[in-house]
Amino acid sequence: MVKKVFAVAAILAVMAVPALALDGQAAGQPAGSDAKTYLGFAMALGLGLAAFGGAAGQGRAIAGAVEAVARQPEAGGRIQGMMIIGLALIETLVIYMLLICFMWGGKLDQPH
């Protein structure tokens, strides 16, 4: 598990290098555009974390449901129904983050 965490951290670090490499003045942008750069980076990182967390939560929910059905097969229908409701709620959190990215992403193109 620790190796996976370090691998994800290394991938995020490599992906962050281009976003942080150029200064606003060096890229030919106005001096006040640093906030927009950080906002874009924060949205991308936030959406990635939300998707990763949602996928991890869904994986644990499905694993728990499969284990519960294996222990008590006659309750499979009820377990499946509760699992689907739980998966929908988990996915809703990721969709909320995507909606926030769309709302704030429109502000990146607008001038001050």
Query: Helical stretch count?
Result: 3
Q: How many distinct domains?
A: 1
CATH fourth-tier homologous superfamily: F1F0 ATP synthase subunit C
**Which residues form runs of ≥5 with pLDDT under 50?**
none
- Any idea of the CATH class? Mainly Alpha
Q: Write down how many β-strands occur, each being a DSSP E stretch of 2 or more residues.
A: 0
Radius of gyration: 20 Å
Give the topology string: H per helix, E per strand.
Answer: HHH
| C-alpha geometry | elongated
Specify the helix fraction band: over 70%
Strand content: under 5%
- Class of secondary structure makeup: mainly alpha
User: How does CATH name the architecture?
Assistant: Up-down Bundle
> What about the largest sheet?
none
Overall mean pLDDT stands at 80
And the CATH topology? F1FO ATP Synthase
Span from first to last CA? 44 Å
Q: Can you describe what's shown?
A:
The protein has 112 residues and is mainly α. It has a single domain (33-112), classed as F1F0 ATP synthase subunit C (F1FO ATP Synthase). The chain has 3 helices and no strands. It has helices spanning 2-21, 34-71, 76-109. The radius of gyration is 20 Å and the shape is elongated.
